[in-house]
Specification:
Spore Coat Polysaccharide Biosynthesis Protein SpsA, Chain A, 15% strand, 248 residues, alpha/beta
């Protein structure tokens, strides 16, 4: 059944089977990643994983490059990273995938480090986050300060410690994400994901990964996305009282 995202869309309320032995579908949200996405897809496929690239309205041939590298491509009008993640989750559920491995299309995440994330999910974690603790000296100072502050606030809101709340390297059941009442559709969705999952009683586990920084300029807007971050904290905290029934 065709699906289109919009803020406020009713969360998924279907069954949540979770055969933990199934290999995850790699879901890569991408916007104008030509010159990078092909290598990422190739490296992920070398691990034996099926790859879906959600092309979020790129105008530089990202979708064609991903397809040439062996990925399946879901193209949509640009709407933000969060929208791309949820589109990928719907695609995964429609095709029977019990888990998704989320990673960025700019090469910031090393696919070879996905093993511990997948293993942690298979061992029973509900949301696994790749915590960027290795090579942290390469991380720009402004990002380091924001990541530490944001993770502290997310920890307080979630009631569960989250060391790297802004990492996009994650593994989980896509049905869980489709049940959470997200209000954001950009980078703020990743913040809400941590708070809503934790406040609904789900277990978050973090595994160490390498922080890779290249010449790609960050797509995070210092003003608008900071505002969206604080808004996400407030909205997800306010949504918490009704979560246990919605996500049980």
């Amino acid at each position: 059944m065709p699906w289109s995202f919009r803020p406020g869309l009713p969360p998924y309320n279907g069954p949540m089977p979770s055969p933990r032995t199934q290999r995850p579908l790699a879901v890569i949200p991408a916007y104008n990643e030509s010159g990078r996405i092909g290598r990422v897809v190739t490296e992920v496929r070398a691990l034996g994983l099926e790859v879906l690239v959600v092309d979020d309205g790129s105008n530089d041939g990202t979708g064609d490059e991903a397809r040439s590298a062996g990925a399946q491509v879901l193209s949509q009008v640009n709407g933000g990273k969060g929208k791309a993640i949820l589109s990928g989750c719907h695609w995964a559920v429609d095709r029977g995938h019990a888990a998704v491995l989320l990673l960025d299309g700019d090469g910031q995440h090393d696919p070879r480090e996905s093993g511990p994330l997948i293993s942690a999910w298979q061992d029973g974690a509900d949301l696994v986050i790749g915590c960027r603790t290795r090579c942290s000296a390469q991380q720009p100072i402004h990002r380091k300060i924001f990541n530490r502050l944001s993770s502290l606030l997310v920890t307080l809101a979630a009631g569960q410690r989250v060391v790297d709340s802004q990492s996009g390297y994650r593994c989980c059941d896509p049905r869980l994400l489709l049940r959470l009442p997200f209000s954001g559709c950009r980078y703020d969705l990743e913040t809400e994901m941590c708070v809503l999952a934790a406040r609904s009683g789900r277990r978050i586990v973090e595994t160490p990964v390498t922080a890779i920084y290249n010449d790609k300029k960050s797509g995070v807007h210092p003003v608008f996305d900071t505002y969206r971050f604080f808004r996400a904290i407030v909205r997800s905290t306010l949504a918490a009282p009704r979560l246990r029934l919605a996500v049980a």
